[in-house]
Specification:
The N and C termini lie far apart (54 Å). The strands form 2 sheets. This protein has a 7-stranded mixed sheet with strand order 2-8-7-6-5-3-4, with helices on both faces. Strands 1-11-12-10-9 form a 5-stranded mixed sheet. A hairpin with a 7-residue loop joins strand 9 and strand 10. Helix content is 42%, strand content 14%. By secondary structure, the protein is α/β, with parallel strands linked by helices.
């Protein structure tokens, strides 16, 4: 099994990025529950034949859809060690928790947070954003809200983010019990950054209506075009208005590891909380999200919960308080800290920063290729590593939608689509450390070929 996966990684360029699942293969996974044992070798053979060829393909250098990291063999091996250990990182006095605590200290240093800051590895930024909102809610209303709930609170909280923010911010506001109407969605400027004047007006209007502004979420790397909000200006507004300043840096926050890119994140060090994923630009295998909170005491007071069966001691296996379960919703937690720790140890943050800068350089190369090709059109500024473009032609939305599908089904490259200025865009997110200039050349050549073919097909349909 290990040898096969190492071979898969080594020869991944020889495979299609993605391929459609044959119905016959899909149907084999409608089988009933197995009652008797099956030989492991047979199960592995089935994995190699029916599962491995039909994954999303984000380990492949031609995968440019959405924002998925590529992983590394080092992370894969660390995941094997963690699975073999099979420890629960919800709590107890054990070295695996010290590994996670060391990661918290490292992340604290990366972002310039104080010694009292706390952090937690979670499944991803969606959960990290939820934790941030819950901590902000408790910090504003007091820990009594955990007992009485929002129904007994006179204040009506409202939060703010941009129209380019990820949907998980609105989802987290909903899950926190505030309702999506409590989130003010602020427009963006031509660079995709939150409109500061509109934000100030919204806060002023809400205060005048007797509402309580409490939360402001900036974005470091918007999901559509990779824009970075003016975090310093947002920090100033949050400070003057008494708002909890959160940064959703799902993939973009780790740009701070690159001296070349870090200045674009100026102000992130002033955040009250930061959410990001090691499994994106950090190349750690899924999943490895992270939440960092400046006020560790506020973080713990939002989640700690006494119970006799979780009683803490000063000695023995029940020592080592506080436990990770005091900082988030999970009592059962895998050892995702190990693959993250091993990745940072083996590669070092300097090399990781160079890799992140390289993906941005590859994105700039793609931008230049688009600008030099008359049949292609750039649809948005390229701030970091996301490039949105389209093939020129009549019925451009349908044309580019079909081109994107053709690219995916070809196995040559797998971009996604999004909407930029009311137009369908082919969206290439250069996140995988394996992606190079040759992969961009392949994407451009295939886009032009499929664009011409699809345009001819559409002209025939019109005729």
């Amino acid at each position: 099994m290990l040898d096969d996966m190492l071979d898969y990684t080594q020869h991944i360029r020889e495979r299609p990025v993605w391929q459609p699942i044959p119905q016959a293969i899909r149907d084999t996974f409608r089988e009933p529950l197995p009652l008797d044992p099956t030989d492991l070798a047979m199960v592995h053979d089935r994995f190699m034949r029916d599962i491995l060829p039909y994954s999303a393909g984000n380990a492949h250098p031609g995968f440019m859809g959405w924002v998925n990291g590529g992983g590394t063999p080092v992370g894969m091996l660390a995941e094997m060690l963690a699975a073999g250990l099979n420890t629960n990182l919800g709590g107890r006095d054990q070295i695996p928790i010290e590994i996670e605590r060391q990661l918290v200290r490292w992340v604290r240093d990366i972002f310039g947070f104080p010694e009292g800051a706390s952090g937690l590895l979670v499944t991803g930024t969606s959960v990290a954003n939820l934790i941030a909102i819950l901590v902000a809610r408790t910090a504003r209303l007091g820990i009594g809200v955990r007992q009485t709930g929002l129904a007994n609170v006179e204040e009506k909280l409202v939060g703010y983010t941009s129209s380019a923010a990820h949907l998980c911010i609105a989802k987290a506001i909903d899950m926190a019990g505030l309702g999506r109407e409590a989130l003010r969605v602020i427009g963006v400027d031509s660079a995709g950054q939150m409109d500061l004047a509109a934000l100030r007006s919204a806060v002023e209007r809400d205060r005048a209506e007797g509402l309580t502004p409490f939360f402001l979420a900036g974005t470091a790397g918007t999901v559509d075009i990779g824009a970075v909000d003016d975090l310093s200006a947002l920090a100033d507004i949050a400070q003057s208005e008494g708002l909890w300043f959160h940064v959703d840096g799902a993939y973009g926050a780790l740009a701070i590891l690159s001296p070349e890119l870090a200045p674009r994140l100026a102000g992130i060090e002033r955040a009250d909380s930061i959410a990001f994923d090691f499994h994106k630009w950090g190349q750690v295998p899924y999943d490895a999200g992270f939440i960092l909170v400046r006020d560790g005491a506020a973080h713990q007071s939002t989640f700690d919960f006494p119970a006799a069966y979780l009683r803490r001691e000063t000695r023995g296996l029940a020592a080592g308080s506080p436990w990770p379960c005091d900082l988030g919703p999970d009592l059962s937690r895998g050892f995702r800290a190990l693959k993250t720790w091993v990745t940072l140890q083996v590669y070092g943050v300097r090399r990781l920063g160079e890799m992140i800068a390289h993906t941005c350089a590859v994105a700039q190369y793609l931008k230049r290729c688009i600008e030099q090709e008359p049949q292609l059109e750039l649809l948005a500024p390229v701030s970091l590593n996301i490039v949105c473009f389209r093939f020129r032609g009549d019925y451009a939305d349908e044309l580019n939608r079909r081109i994107a599908v053709a690219l995916q089904e070809s196995g040559i490259a797998a971009p996604s689509t999004t909407i930029v200025n009311d137009a369908i865009a082919i969206r290439a997110a250069i996140v995988n450390h394996r992606t190079g200039f040759m992969d961009i050349d392949a994407l451009i050549a295939a886009t032009l070929a499929f664009g011409q073919r699809v345009r001819q097909e559409m002209n025939k349909d019109v005729d």
